[in-house]
Amino acid sequence: MDRPSDKWEFSLRVDQASRILEARGLFELYLGARANQITGRPLISFFDDSERLPFLRYMARLLVRGQAEPVSATLRTPAVGIKRFSMAAKVGEAGRSWWLLFAQDVKGITAAEALDTTEQPYATAQELDIAVRVHDHAAAPLDITLFRARALSDDAASPLSPEARRDIDETLSRTLMDHATDRMVARPTTGEYALLHDRNTDAAALRDRLVAVAATHNIRPADLGLEHETVQVSADSAASEMIRDLRRRMQSNAHVIAATPVRSSRMPALIGAACALILIVIGVMVFSRL
Question: How many helices (H) and strands (E) does the chain have?
Answer without folding.
Answer: 10, 9
